[in-house]
Design brief:
The protein has helices at residues 3-14, 40-48, 51-54, 63-66, 70-79, 96-104, 130-137, 151-154, 183-195, and strands at 17-20, 30-34, 57-62, 83-85, 109-112, 142-149, 168-171. It is α/β, with parallel strands linked by helices. The protein has one domain (3-60, 109-195): Glycerol-3-phosphate (1)-acyltransferase (3-Layer(aba) Sandwich), CATH 3.40.1130. It has a seven-stranded mixed sheet with strand order 1-7-6-2-5-3-4, with helices on both faces. The protein is globular.
Length: 200
């Protein structure tokens, strides 16, 4: 499946309504960070971006999930150009921050899900520290909060057949880490920025 067909299928399946709230699409390097409720999140968020931005935006995805089976592996590597992250054997040698920085280079933006795993219900789980360390290493990045709504109802956890329900994706205003901001304070501010887009 090629990218245009996948984008069309994702939009038709989810009926996604895309909103840019005090933020405009831009080709510059960014990190789009979102709540995570469904395996559809990666596909639909990526598909929601304008084509010229989508072409230079790489989702960070769990290697243990996206390498299982020929279809997932093909989509991750050949269509989404995903950065596959090892979740179970993180070490200095297999540091995901280094992998993400290398994958970005001077050109690519990223899609991240800082909760690290799918949440249940409407709550957004605590953010893991990767977003903080990434932007400390590359402080010129714009961090764009994204709130994804209803995708968990379209493809609930442990289900395989999607249910047609309208969904929405809201992109919010850019954030940056403040000069003396602690990790905990930044991660809470970033989480609140995502949650604050609910219903926008």
């Amino acid at each position: 499946m090629k990218a245009p067909l996948l984008v069309a299928a994702a939009k038709i399946l989810t009926g996604v309504n895309v909103r840019w709230v005090n933020c405009q699409p831009n080709i510059r390097q960014r990190v789009y960070f979102a709540n995570h409720t469904s395996h559809l999140d990666i596909l639909v968020l990526w598909a929601a971006l304008p084509s010229e931005i989508r072409a230079v935006t790489r989702p960070a995805a769990a290697k243990d999930y996206w390498e299982v089976g020929k279809i997932r592996s093909y989509l991750a590597r050949e269509v989404l150009n995903a950065v596959l992250i090892e979740r179970k054997k993180v070490s200095k040698r297999h540091n995901p921050i280094e992998l993400l920085l290398h994958a970005m280079g001077g050109r690519y933006s990223l899609i991240l899900f800082p909760e690290g795993t799918r949440s249940i219900g409407q709550e957004i789980g605590p953010f893991k520290s990767g977003l903080y360390y990434l932007t400390r290493r590359k402080p010129e990045l714009e961090l764009i909060p994204v709130y994804i709504e209803n995708l968990n109802r379209i493809l609930p956890k442990e289900e395989f057949l999607p249910v047609p329900i309208l969904s929405s994706i809201s992109f919010g205003p850019p954030l940056r880490v403040m000069q003396k901001e602690t990790k905990a304070a930044f991660l809470e501010r970033a989480r609140n920025a995502v949650y604050g887009l609910k219903g926008s």
